[in-house]
């Protein structure tokens, strides 16, 4: 572990190298900027972010009181496994919440929900330059959550609303242990052994939902997630599979 300019002194945690930063623009952006200098199994964790990003480039407001991190794998697992890794991570977070008495659900494709509030989000990115890489970004609201005035659906919530929240470093240790235990070979599909668990805690399973995919909106009953990470709805066309999209409840269920 060598010194990297403008980054904290790293330390080791099991097989991982950890850089614990204070305020950064974004752990994802910092990871990308330092990609060539960082080794396989590196984590950047920060106390706050000024330019955090969520799915589809959305801003992720990141005040002090949250868990903001990015995990690097070099080389990348097979690219088709990216959604599976995100879903496994969401399942792992629900396990850690359950240990503290909180029942959580996984909202496809990458959110964790408790009592109708989003408390965690996950984003996966991959590339081949300057070498094969995969970055998993994980954000968890521990004792605070962002104020998003125009958010109309799934308001944010914090872990501390439901139980004592762990310290960020404590959560990191538990998360790494569970991920390593649940997915030891990056060539393997991490959902192969956890798909039943995922479907047992799947948000709105058996309910009527809408899914916005591109410019199209689909309506149907949420049946399951398959082991390739795709979502299956029962629509007027029969069982229909989706690999991406924004999942929502039907309008009359919102509120």
At a glance:
With 255 residues, the chain is an alpha+beta fold. The chain has helices at 27-33, 82-99, 168-182, 195-200, and strands at residues 11-13, 16-24, 42-53, 59-62, 66-73, 105-107, 111-114, 117-127, 133-141, 208-213, 216-225, 231-235, 238-242, 246-249.
Structure, described:
This protein is an alpha+beta fold and 255 residues long. It has 2 domains: 11-200, BirA Bifunctional Protein, domain 2 (2-Layer Sandwich), CATH 3.30.930; 208-253, SH3 type barrels (Roll). It is built from 4 helices and 14 strands. The chain has helices spanning 27-33, 82-99, 168-182, 195-200, and strands at residues 11-13, 16-24, 42-53, 59-62, 66-73, 105-107, 111-114, 117-127, 133-141, 208-213, 216-225, 231-235, 238-242, 246-249. Helix 2 (82-99) packs across helix 3 (168-182). The protein is globular and about 60 Å long. The chain starts with 10 loop residues before the first strand and ends in a 6-residue tail after the last strand.
CATH T-level topology of the largest domain: BirA Bifunctional Protein, domain 2
Based on the structure given, which CATH architecture of the largest domain is correct?
2-Layer Sandwich
Largest sheet: 9 strands, mixed
CA-based gyration radius = 18 Å
In CATH terms, the superfamily of the largest domain is Bira Bifunctional Protein, Domain 2
Q: Work out the helicity level.
A: 10-25%
Number of domains: 2
Q: Kindly provide the name of the CATH class of the largest domain.
A: Alpha Beta
Gross morphology is: globular
Beta-strand residue fraction: 35-45%
pLDDT averaged residue by residue: 91
Question: Span from first to last CA?
Answer: 50 Å
Q: Which consecutive residue ranges, at least 5 long each, have pLDDT under 50?
A: none
**SS class:** alpha+beta
Enumerate how many helices there are, as a single number: 4
The total beta strand count reads: 14
What is the element string, with H for helices and E for strands?
Answer: EEHEEEHEEEEHHEEEEE
């Amino acid at each position: 572990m060598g010194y990297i300019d403008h980054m904290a002194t790293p330390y080791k945690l099991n097989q991982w190298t950890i850089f614990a930063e204070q305020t950064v623009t974004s752990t994802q952006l910092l990871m990308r900027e330092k990609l060539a200098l960082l080794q396989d199994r590196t984590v950047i964790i920060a106390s706050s972010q000024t330019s955090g990003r969520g799915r589809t480039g959305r801003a992720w407001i990141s005040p002090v009181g949250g868990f903001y991190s990015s995990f690097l794998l070099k080389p990348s697992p097979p690219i088709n496994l990216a959604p599976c890794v995100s879903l496994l991570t969401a399942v792992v977070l629900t396990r850690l919440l359950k240990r503290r008495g909180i029942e959580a659900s996984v909202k496809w494709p990458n959110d964790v929900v408790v009592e109708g509030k989003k408390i965690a989000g996950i984003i996966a990115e991959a590339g081949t330059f300057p070498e094969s890489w995969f970055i998993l970004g994980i954000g968890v609201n521990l004792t605070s959550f962002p104020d998003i005035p125009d958010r109309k659906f799934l308001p944010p919530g914090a872990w501390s609303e439901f139980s004592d929240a762990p310290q960020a470093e404590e959560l990191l240790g538990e998360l790494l242990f569970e991920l390593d235990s649940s997915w030891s070979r990056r060539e393997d599909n991490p959902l192969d052994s956890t798909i039943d668990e995922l479907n047992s805690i799947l948000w709105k399973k058996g309910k009527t939902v809408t899914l916005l995919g591109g410019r199209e909106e689909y309506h149907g009953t949420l049946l399951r997630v398959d082991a390739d990470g795709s979502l299956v709805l029962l629509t007027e066309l029969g069982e229909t599979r989706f690999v991406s999209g924004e999942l929502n409840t039907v309008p009359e269920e919102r509120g």
